[in-house]
Structures are given as structure tokens and as C-alpha cells.
Amino acid sequence: MSNPFMMPPTGFGPGSQPLDQQEDALDYMALPQDMRTYSPRIPETDGLEDRDIQPALALLAQVAEAAGRIGRAGGTALFDLAPLNDANRALIAETLGSGEVAAKIHGIPAIAVQESVFAGIWILQSAAGTQIAVGAVPDCVTQAPFAPQRAGRGQAALDGPGIINAPSILVELNDKSAQFSASAPLHVINLTLLPHSDEDLTALDQGLGQGGVTILSRGYGNCRITATALAHVWRVQFFNSQDTLILDTFEVTTIPEVACAAPEDLSDSSARLSQVLEAIR
Q1: How far apart are CA 123 and CA 104, in angstroms?
Q2: In this predicted structure, what is the pLDDT of residue 113?
């Protein structure tokens, strides 16, 4: 009786053919890189006496306590660095570092917001001074984000050739803005899934205008969040690690969730910052 098993033919399959020329080699897409991860930051205190850095340590202990409390019960807290000298401010800056989320608030004074490596703990810098804010998002971000830096033209922006879906999208956003309630479900318009032209995007940008807050969240790719001049309407754009736009949306909300630290993040930041303070002491 013959054996039904047969050896596979030779000369087929991966690796069977020589790659003599460079252009014949497989060209794989580059893998994502530079994802941020948490690592403890133990600042250098050599040459500093304990009494010299006590004000900074005391303030950071208050920040850690506030993060834990806010993680459990919500709210925000604000700490002013004005009473501290340069050495204590430098210690705080080195301890907190720079995290994934940054924002720019256009106003008087303008405010630069930078999340620390501890999620939910933010550094606010302006002409008025430097402060530390603790919370899902600093209060200054949500105070007047839709104050127009560039006023929207509304329906007047829709005149021109090549416009397909911009009129209906603008009507929908105006309707949701007028009827907005903080308790209502999040309303999202996904431009990535809708047919639209370049002229549509230009018309929507001009029709909605630009508000007073721009947020950048860096992580596995980037997320750019821009307040429009229409109340409660945000433009949220996601880019992959190759800086290619992969998701383009409008969100009608108080603040997009992607910009906020979760309660669990704040509780975790409280514990991590307390551990760092123990190591410094």
C-alpha cells in the first residue's frame, strides 16, 4: 500500500527565492515608536540642606493630598508658587517634569498649560506667575474656551463651488450648540466617515471660527483639540505615529474626554508623587 503523504514541492514559499537586488527586498511599514511611559523621577538634591527645600516638599505633599482627594470626590485645587525661591521652584519643576498633554489659552494674560508626568497635576505659566493646578482639567481651560480669536462667518462661509456636506454639518452643529446640556449624551460628527471635499473643510473652518483654547495630547500618536468660536463645539483630530490624520471629528461637549485625567489617574498620581517625596526625604 502506498503512503498518501507527499513532500511539498521545492522552490516555493517564503525564503525560497534569493533577494539579490535591494529593490526586491521586502519593505515593511515602520512600526509606531516613542510611546510615552511613566518612570519615577527622583530629583537631585545634592548640595541642598533639608531646611532649604522644605517649602517645596511641603507644597508637593499638599499637591499629592489634593490629587488623592479629587480622585475620590472630584473638584479642583490651585497652588501658587510665588512664595517659593528659585531653588524650591527648580526642585518642583524637576520633580513634576512634563507629561503628555499641553494647552495654550489665548487671553489676557495668555496661559501655557503643561501636564506633569503625574496625570491630573498641571503646571500653569503666564505673565501673572506660575501655579500648579490639580484636577481632571484646569479650570482656566473651561472658563471661556469659545471666546473667539477668529470669529465664525456662519452661513456666509458656505458660498462657493465644491461645497458638498458643509451646509448640513453646520446646521447640525448650530442646533446641537443651541440645545446643549451638560447632562446630554456626547454628540460627535465623524468627518472621517462622511463624504466631504477640501472646500467643505475650509467652509467649516471659516464658518465655525476659532476659540481661545488649543490642546495637544501626545501619546501613541497625537491628538489636537481646538475650540471653535461656536459654544460647546470642539474640533478633535487624531494623528498616528507617522503624523497622518486618521480620525477627524467635531464634538459638542464641555471639554473632550481625551484631554481630561480620569479619577483613577489622579489617585494613581497621588500615590506616585508621595513615593517620590519619600525618596527625596
Answers
A1: 12
A2: 98
